[in-house]
UniProtKB/TrEMBL annotation:
InterPro entries: DIOX_N (IPR026992), IPNS-like_FE2OG_OXY (IPR044861), IPNS-like_sf (IPR027443), Oxoglu/Fe-dep_dioxygenase_dom (IPR005123), Plant_2OG-oxidoreductases (IPR050295). PROSITE patterns: FE2OG_OXY. It comes from the Eukaryota. GO terms for molecular function: metal ion binding; oxidoreductase activity. This is Germination Insensitive to ABA Mutant 2, Gain-of-function in ABA-modulated Seed germination 2. The keyword Oxidoreductase applies. The lineage of its organism: Eukaryota, Viridiplantae, Streptophyta, Embryophyta, Tracheophyta. Pfam families: 2OG-FeII_Oxy (PF03171), DIOX_N (PF14226). PANTHER family: OXOGLUTARATE/IRON-DEPENDENT DIOXYGENASE. Residues 199-299 form the Fe2OG dioxygenase domain. Keywords: Iron, Metal-binding, Oxidoreductase.
Length: 352
């Protein structure tokens, strides 16, 4: 029987808390794909970048760290960032502040329900409930925090904690992006200058995945890559993130007090495909609430992103992607169903 969408979409948190729920409504059932079961048995673990070495005053240490960063971007597209200087207490406080938001009443949360993907505060469920054919087992709160800082006005401490957290995380992202520029053989401020990072977009995307009675049928977030340049993610102590590596899914258990970083579609475009944005997804479980906070850092909304000219000078290496304004890309990706790397595919040139 065809799945029918409830008339009024409620949060998955409210659904999960309904006492009689023993199975999930059919609209939350994802079809299995043949490669879903391909799990890596690799002993190889996700690379780590020591932020204190990346920002070291010792040129040898820094250049070694940049080499490691470049290798991590090329081999995995994902890496852990340790020794980043953001206090652990602040990382815990922002997770609890987000939990506090999701614990507000349904009516209070609905005040922040956004209508358009560029609304600076957007609470919702699934990915894009207006167009999703299958709903994700996930509620979210997305807030633009730079170039203008926005925040819901409840719960009470949210604004202050979010302002401090986003400022500290942005510093880390800026330094890593300087390292990414250098690792590509460009000037260290190439990304910052060309894409106007002074006015770059920083989004806080808080994800709430309640326990699910049939986790094997549902999906927190299906496979996708991220828009923007660099995402820095933290989570409560509950696992659920899987990353695609060499065609297989790998479970990622972040090192406590570290960030999980991944390069976004716009680094893939800028590097002309040398660094790839990587598919990842969030699975759910039947025991614990999982909260993750992903912070994508992107160009300025009006910046046009194209492969760096220095990387496409050679005629054997023509531009593999079309230039596109970041804002248009964002509207396209966030306004559609999440579907792997289909948005990036739409700006790919047909080069041999
Ligand atoms: O919850 C996670 O670990 C993944 C989140 C994510 O991929 C996203 O917010 O885009």
């Amino acid at each position: 029987m065809a799945a029918t969408r409830p008339h009024k979409l409620t949060s998955v948190k409210a659904l999960a808390e309904s006492p009689a729920l023993s199975s999930i409504p059919s609209i939350y059932t994802f079809p299995k794909h043949t490669n879903d079961e391909l799990f890596s048995d690799t002993e190889e673990s996700i690379p780590t970048v020591d932020f204190s070495l990346l920002t070291s005053g010792n040129p040898d240490e820094r250049s070694k760290a940049i080499q490691q960063l470049g290798k991590a971007c090329q081999d995995w597209g994902f890496f852990m960032v340790t020794n980043h200087g953001v206090p652990e207490s602040l990382m815990k406080a922002i997770i609890e502040a987000c939990r506090g938001f999701f614990d507000l009443t349904e009516e209070e949360k609905r005040e922040f329900q956004g209508k358009h993907v560029l609304d600076p505060i957007r609470y919702g469920t699934s990915f894009n409930a207006a167009v999703d054919k299958i709903l994700c087992w996930r509620d979210y709160l997305k807030i633009f925090q730079h170039p203008q800082f926005h925040s819901p006005n409840k719960p009470p401490a949210f604004r202050e904690i979010a302002a401090e957290y986003s400022k500290r995380v942005r510093q880390v992202a800026k330094e890593i992006l300087r390292g990414v520029s250098e690792s590509l053989g460009l000037e260290d401020n190439y990304i910052g200058k060309t894409l106007n990072l002074e006015h770059g977009l920083q989004v806080m995307a808080a994800n709430f995945y309640p326990p699910c009675p049939q986790p094997e049928l549902a999906m927190g977030l299906p496979a996708h890559s991220d828009h923007g340049l660099l995402t820095l993610l933290i989570q409560n102590q509950i696992g659920g993130l899987q990353v695609q590596h060499n065609g297989k899914w790998v479970n990622i258990d972040p090192i406590p007090n570290s960030f999980l970083a991944n390069v976004g579609d716009h680094v893939e475009i800028l590097s002309n495909g040398k660094y790839k944005s990587v598919l990842h997804r969030a699975v759910v479980n039947n025991r614990d609430v999982r909260i993750s906070i992903a912070m994508p850092h992107g160009p300025a909304l009006d910046a046009v992103v194209s492969p760096a000219s220095r990387l496409v000078e050679d005629e054997r290496n023509p531009p593999a992607y079309r230039a596109m304004k970041y804002k248009e890309y964002l509207e396209l990706q966030q306004g559609s169903m999440l579907n792997g790397k289909s948005c990036l595919e739409s700006v790919r040139n047909n080069v041999i």
